[in-house]
UniProtKB/TrEMBL annotation:
Family: Belongs to the ABC transporter superfamily.
ABC transporter domain boundaries: 2-232
Keyword list, A-Z: Amino-acid transport, ATP-binding, Cell membrane, Membrane, Nucleotide-binding, Translocase, Transport
Gene Ontology CC: plasma membrane
Protein name, UniProt field: D-methionine ABC transporter, ATP-binding protein
Molecular function GO labels: ATP binding; ATP hydrolysis activity
UniProt keyword annotation of Amino-acid biosynthesis present: no
Any one GO BP annotation for this protein: amino acid transport
Domain of life: Bacteria
Length: 232
């Protein structure tokens, strides 16, 4: 589903170039929950943002669902990104919009008719357990509820891939568990491929099928969760 070949990313900074990724090769199969774990600064965020081209890799190829993202124009990328939902550590909701309007936002951006939007948003509210919160504003919600809105918004354009960027790092352990269960539930119900980046081992152990450990811009180790976390 996702194939990264020899990905390099070098940032220009005032103090000189920063090599964030130094040749990453990774294959993520359809329907898998794939975890990427590493310390702060290891390159996780850069890597996940290369999958949807929020960052353009300096070198290498990114294939998502058979399409090479690295050769696309901005217009082609906008279309391809509908295939890739993303959720964030700090949720990134619009504070002046209701839950309903936050979820509808990407559909309105792509000029979906309101009647069709309603047909998509109402089942998504059910799916994430917020059917009674449609008219509330983000400030009226708990952290876990905000992330549920983030998840529903990410699913609105019916993506095949869900990217989770430290999606539970701002949540308490109990809320984390319920969000991870929701992600697992969605992965099964919608046959969605999920990529999770985190610095928390427990998140990987709880929901991931496979894991890659990233250190200093390279993959130090990868395999099934059992292989990587069972020390001989
Ligand atoms: P992680 O998500 O694992 O914390 P990042 O991908 O955010 O790691 O960062 C990897 C490296 O790239 C770090 O050294 C970081 O300082 C650097 N970096 C990230 N974004 C930028 C940027 N926009 N400009 C310059 N350096 C950056
Ligand atoms: P962090 O992981 O440090 O909490 P966020 O997850 O809040 O940061 O945001 C990560 C980056 O994604 C931000 O730099 C922001 O510019 C970008 N971003 C925010 N909202 C969206 C969105 N809806 N779609 C794509 N990119 C976004």
């Amino acid at each position: 589903m996702i194939q990264l070949s020899h990905i390099e990313k070098t940032y220009d900074s005032p103090s000189g170039p920063v090599k964030a990724l130094k040749g990453i090769d990774l294959t993520i199969e359809r329907g898998e929950i794939f975890g990427i774990i590493g310390l702060s600064g290891a390159g996780k965020s850069t890597l996940i943002r290369c999958i949807n081209m929020l960052e353009r890799p300096t070198a290498g190829k990114v294939i998502v669902d058979g399409q090479d993202m690295t050769v696309m124009s901005e217009k082609e990328l906008r279309k391809a990104r509908k295939n890739i939902g993303m959720i964030f550590q700090h949720f990134n909701l619009l504070s002046s919009a209701t839950v309903y309007d936050n979820i509808a936002f990407p559909l309105r951006l792509s000029h979906t008719p309101e009647a069709e939007i309603k047909k998509k948003v109402l089942p998504l509210l059910e799916l994430v357990g917020l059917a009674d919160k449609a008219h509330q504003y983000p400030s009226q919600l708990s952290g876990g509820q905000k992330q549920r809105v983030g998840i529903a918004r990410a699913l609105a354009s019916e993506p095949k891939v869900l990217l989770c960027d430290e999606a539970t790092s701002a949540l308490d352990p109990q809320t984390t568990r319920s969000i991870l269960e929701l992600i697992q539930d969605i992965n099964r119900k919608l046959s969605l491929t999920v990529v999770v980046i985190t610095h928390e081992m427990q998140v990987i152990k709880d929901i991931c099928d496979k894991v890659a450990v990233i250190e200093n811009g390279v993959i130090a180790e990868q395999g099934t969760v059992l292989e990587v976390f069972t020390n001989p």
